[in-house]
């Protein structure tokens, strides 16, 4: 946790994004092999940095599974997503109109195809700081015929979050953060929780096997002066730890709340008014 001005999470700390440019890619579902093939071809018209007048773009792709077809969703709240696969295409140095040509594929049963949304995130690589988000493209496979290779051109849109689960936390004013439960679709691995990922203070939970509801019941205590407690924000990052030891951990989602986070004002305000009573609340886990 830390000052809400300087220590927002990587995903939440977004200045106003100037969205421009387009993306060209192709999609193909091989029915004989039950494989989805995603080929990133090129992008153009990407915005350059103000000072260097350059951009080093790369693209991250996530396959999101909603568990029900898009046209049948009638809930007012956002549907719960599950990240089935995640790939990152190579970075192209100093080009606002890069050519990629990379291809990824994964096994996917035909009955699952209509439930899939593919999210292309276009970012500007930065070796020394966080990567700049340039925009995103989403395609819903229920709307597309991809039994033959289909080439698609779409303009970049402003990036949005996806709901991948919920985290039950309690807070105490002094400051204690209790990680109670995580509720999310099961993943084929284990998870760990980092609260939070920045340098002022952070702690890690134990590693748990993922279930529909994963129980932690762990308390993380932070000793901070009262002014810092009142001005800080808390980031809880949930990671999947792959079975292969050489594989790096994958971010499942994040919860960010505290002063200045309007969506979490209720929990934060209750905590500030409560001296000894822990305040528990479910928070959306977003990616």
What distance lies between the first and last C-alpha atoms, to the nearest angstrom? 19 Å
CA-based shape: globular
Number of domains: 2
Q: Kindly estimate the percentage of residues that lie in beta strands according to DSSP.
A: over 45%
Q: What is the structural class?
A: mainly beta
The fold-level CATH name of the largest domain is Immunoglobulin-like
User: Largest sheet at a glance?
Assistant: 6 strands, antiparallel
Number of strands: 18
Fraction of helical residues = under 10%
Radius of gyration: 20 Å
Assign the CATH class of the largest domain.
Mainly Beta
Find the CATH superfamily of the largest domain: C2 domain
Averaged pLDDT, please? 81
Stretches where pLDDT is under 50 for at least 5 consecutive residues are 1-15, 69-76
Number of helices: 2
Architecture of the largest domain, CATH level 2? Sandwich
Order of helices and strands: EEEEEEEEEEEEEEEHEEHE
In brief:
By secondary structure, the protein is mostly beta strands. The protein has two helices and 18 strands.
């Amino acid at each position: 946790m830390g000052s809400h001005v300087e220590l927002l999470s990587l995903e939440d700390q977004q200045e106003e994004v100037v969205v421009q440019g387009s993306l060209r890619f192709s999609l193909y579902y091989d029915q004989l092999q039950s494989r989805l093939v995603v080929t990133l071809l090129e992008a153009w018209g990407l915005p350059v940095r103000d000072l260097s007048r350059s951009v080093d773009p790369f693209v991250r792709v996530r396959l999101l599974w909603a568990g029900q077809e898009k046209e049948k969703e009638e809930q007012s709240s956002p549907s719960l997503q599950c990240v089935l696969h995640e790939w990152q295409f190579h970075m192209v140095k100093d080009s606002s109109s890069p050519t990629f040509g990379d291809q990824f594929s994964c096994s996917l049963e035909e009955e699952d195809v209509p439930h899939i949304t593919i999210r292309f995130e276009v970012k500007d690589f930065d070796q020394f700081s966080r990567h700049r988000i340039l925009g995103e493209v989403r395609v819903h496979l229920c709307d597309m015929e991809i039994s033959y290779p289909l080439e698609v051109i779409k303009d970049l849109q402003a990036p949005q979050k996806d709901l991948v689960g919920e985290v039950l936390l309690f807070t105490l004013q002094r400051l204690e953060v209790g990680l109670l439960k995580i509720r999310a679709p099961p993943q084929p691995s284990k998870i760990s929780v980092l609260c939070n990922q920045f340098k002022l203070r952070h702690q890690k939970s134990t590693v748990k096997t993922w279930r529909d509801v994963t129980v932690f019941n762990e308390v993380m205590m932070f000793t901070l002066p009262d002014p810092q407690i009142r001005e800080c924000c808390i980031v809880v990052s949930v990671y999947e730890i792959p079975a292969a030891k050489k594989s790096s951990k994958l971010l499942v989602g994040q919860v960010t709340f505290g002063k200045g986070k309007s969506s979490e004002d209720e929990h934060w305000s209750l905590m500030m008014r409560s001296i000894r009573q822990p305040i528990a609340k479910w928070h959306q886990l977003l990616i």
